[in-house]
Amino acid sequence: MKPSAMSKRKLKESSAESAECISQVQKIFRERFCHHCAAGKLFGMEQQYRHLLELLRRTTVHGESNSALIIGPRGSGKTALLNHVLKDLREMEQVTENLLEVHLNGLLQTNDKVALKEITRQLQLENVVGDKVFGSFAENLAFLLEALRKGNRTSSCPILFVLDEFDLFVHHKNQTLLYNLFDISQSAQTPVTVIGLTCRQDILELLEKRVKSRFSHRQIYLMNSFDFKQYIKIFQKQLSLPAEFPDESFAQKWNNNVQHLSEDKTVQDVLQNLFHHTKDLHSLHLLLMLAVSAVTVHHPLLTPADLQEASRQHRTDSKANIVHGLSVLEICLIIAMKHLNDVYDGEPFNFQMVYNEFQKFIQRKAHSMYNFEKPVVMKAFEHLLQLELVKPLERPSVRAQREYLLMKLLLDSSQIMDALQVYPNCPTDVKQWAASSLSWL
């Protein structure tokens, strides 16, 4: 009895340890893939990293004011680059607690008044402002910066303004916020650096003349310029566990498995598909996150099948999924629209045209399909409109008759055919009608 009791206890302890290991693994990868954390590695942007680090170091150490724009497509690593630089900057001795940061986002701070409130909150100056009334935006901002000032320029605490979705701040009235921030960064007031992040290449064309003249014209471009071999290395590095992982033997086993995965033909095909579709690392992170979520105590290491399944989920078409939940009548209306698109070469259609097309089908196949009343068909059509599978070309006016509003179908033929293949209990006549050529229409 005793030996078996001891072996049971050992088994329990080892399973608890492995559960702890798996939990740690998932925590590390969640932070790496879901947050723009500075723990991961930067790929192919060493030059930009050095440039930005030097720029911010001069602000924090020497009190220089600067401005710069980080430009690159979505998922190219703009936020990751900035987070890495800020993390390394905070670790420098001269910088410790010598930099105030204000993070604004164009999607949240939709006008200058909201932005100013957020600046006040992040600089913790609500009690200084109190109930004061200011004549202008510039006066208010100048007062905030004055409150932070101490002694001369070099001993003042530098402030870093990070403007995410920079292009949205351009649409604020008179670009007042940008004008004042760039104006301060050009003048000999409090040391201020303004960093804008945007995915628009033509951003300078959108700036007003007075704003453009105050901007330093420093632009840091990020492009995903790596080839497929480097992409495989990125995949390996992103999936590898760090050296400081608590359980060294498990980390060794995991990293060896990742090495084998990167050489596996099936995995390379999955990555090749994704690479040709999009090179941004967001998509790679999403794929890896889906794969890692399949890891459990009983299935502790990733397999090629996990990555294939993750790829299938990643590529799932959301619109085709909506089609699976439609009624047969709604499917028939979509097929009628598909035929109208084919006949009129993608020209817009209205409900009456779709209804007539549906009636032709009903008359031919009256024995298998129930003929619905026109209001019922109209209701089904409106449901498709709510699901955004159909879109009106212009906003409907009060006088316009609903039957004659011009519409556009937001599904293409291949999506419709794929969805019909897996649609449960779809009548054969409906499938044949969808697949039929246009010769007899």
SSE order and pairing:
Blueprint: H1 2-34, H2 46-62, E1 66-71, H3 78-90, E2 100-105, H4 112-122, H5 126-129, H6 137-147, E3 159-164, H7 166-169, H8 176-186, E4 192-198, H9 203-206, H10 209-212, E5 219-221, H11 228-239, H12 248-263, H13 265-277, H14 281-292, H15 304-315, H16 318-324, H17 328-343, H18 351-364, H19 374-386, E6 390-392, E7 407-409, H20 413-421, H21 428-435
Parallel strand pairs: 1-4, 1-5, 2-3, 3-4
Antiparallel strand pairs: 6-7
Helix pairs in contact: 1-14, 2-3, 4-6, 11-12, 13-15, 14-15, 16-20, 17-18
Describe the structure.
This protein has helices at residues 2-34, 46-62, 78-90, 112-122, 126-129, 137-147, 166-169, 176-186, 203-206, 209-212, 228-239, 248-263, 265-277, 281-292, 304-315, 318-324, 328-343, 351-364, 374-386, 413-421, 428-435, and strands at 66-71, 100-105, 159-164, 192-198, 219-221, 390-392, 407-409. The protein is α/β, with parallel strands linked by helices. The strands form two sheets. Strands 2-3-4-1-5 form a five-stranded parallel beta sheet, sandwiched between helices. A two-stranded antiparallel sheet has the order 6-7. The protein starts with a helix and ends in a 6-residue tail after the last helix.
Structure, briefly:
The chain is α/β, with parallel strands linked by helices and 441 residues long. The chain is built from 21 helices and seven strands.
Strand adjacency order, main sheet: 2-3-4-1-5
Q: Kindly provide the radius of gyration, computed on alpha-carbon positions and rounded to a whole number of angstroms.
A: 30 Å
Q: Give the number of helices.
A: 21
- Number of strand segments: 7
Main beta sheet, described? 5 strands, parallel
What series of H and E elements makes up the topology? HHEHEHHHEHHEHHEHHHHHHHHHEEHH
**What is the 3D form?**
flat
Average residue pLDDT: 80
Based on helices, strands and strand pairing, what is the structural class?
A: alpha/beta
Distance between the termini: 82 Å
DSSP helix fraction = 55-70%
Percent range for β-strand residues: 5-15%
Indicate the low-confidence ranges by residue numbers. none
